[in-house]
Amino acid sequence: MTLRCWGHFRSPQIKTWLPTRWHNLQFSNPLGTAGGLDKNGTLVRGAWAIGAGFVEIGTVTPEPQAANPGKKFDREASTLSVWNRLGFPNDGADLVFDRLAKLPRPCPTPIFLNIGKNRWTDLLHAHEDYVRLARKFRDQADALVINVSSPNTAGLRELLGPNRLRDFLQPILENSNKTPMLLKLSPDLSNDDLIQVLDTSSEIGISGWVLTNTTLARPGNLSARYPVDGGLSGRPLAARSLEMLKITTEHLKTRGEKAGDKLIISVGGAMTVDDVFLRLRLGAQLVQIYSALVFNGPGFFHEVARYAQKTEMVTGRRRDHSP
Questions:
Q1: Is 40:99 a contact under the CB 8 Å cutoff?
Q2: Cα(97)–Cα(133) distance, rounded to whole angstroms?
Q3: Confidence (pLDDT) at 316
Q4: What pLDDT, on the 0 to 100 scale, is given for residue 26?
Q5: pLDDT of residue 257
Q6: Residue 315 pLDDT class (50, 70, 90 cuts)
């Protein structure tokens, strides 16, 4: 609620540091909000007010749906961990579309839209939900994020399997109308499966990847704190998120991909200023946060900006990732 109020009473406070261009998208800074923070497109102005360099809305499904029953959210300050089993609760495509259409244009930042299937759509027809959403939002969003990696929709991650991924993605990409399409990956993929997903999705034209979603793993003693189902994020996800970032950037080099051909967004466990810049050094063009806002508050964007400006990463040192 606070973030929504800030959007009403504060103008955009977006600081410029490491300004970045990728294809035709311009980012005043490379730090943005992760999917799940603003499920319905009601917090966009608030994200601009606290300094986000880009915003991700969603996950949005074709039809409205409620959250999963039972306990849905928990957190633990001592481990900087957040757990949820929400399962894509949102107002549905029509209402979110209307909210996006009312935003001022041009927007102060790029807007990404995270899309998913309704829980009652079976896997055989799942691509139809994503095609419907791609057609609806391709001219309203600057990029679409295909979410098949949430652990909170039964069977969803099966779409990342080698026997499904190509046939699932192909019709969605064919309906992009040149809007960048990103694939959000699960941290619970094996390293071999990660390589296979990267290769398959790259070959059929995916624009990049969001690394990563929440995990079913329970590092350390967290199994005593949280149920076995539901996704875990925050500090316990950091090591795997970093590992997947390193594997991805190194693998793309072996494929002969030019720097910036594919957009790489790192998310998961970036809790401090140093965490943000480590991911940028490791090859991520953009970084997203969610749990950092839960534990550090909305001033985190400006904290990172102040550090960046002190270290002279300011306007004039633009990173150009255009091919």
A1: yes
A2: 10
A3: 47
A4: 96
A5: 77
A6: very low
Q: Give me the phi and psi of 60, to 5 degrees please.
A: -110, 135
Contact 91, 40 (CB under 8 A): yes
239 close to 279: Cβ distance less than 8 angstroms: no
Sort strands 263-267 and 208-211 into parallel, antiparallel or unpaired: parallel
Domain of residue 156, CATH code: 3.20.20.70
Residues involved in catalysis = 150
Give the domain range for residue 73. 2-320
Length of the chain: 323
Segment 176-192, tens digit of pLDDT: 999 999 999 999 999 99
Lookup: tokens for 53: 């360099």
Give the residue among 73, 186, 61 at the shortest CA–CA distance from 129. Answer: 61
Beta strands (DSSP E) in the chain are 20-22, 25-27, 31-33, 55-60, 73-76, 81-84, 111-115, 143-147, 181-185, 208-211, 231-234, 263-267, 286-289, 319-320
> Rounded CA gap, 120 and 127, in Å?
13
At residue 141, the 3 state secondary structure works out as coil
Looking at every residue in the chain, the average pLDDT score rounds to 92
Domains contained in the chain, number: 1
pLDDT tens-digit readout, 38-65: 999 999 999 999 999 999 999 999 999 9
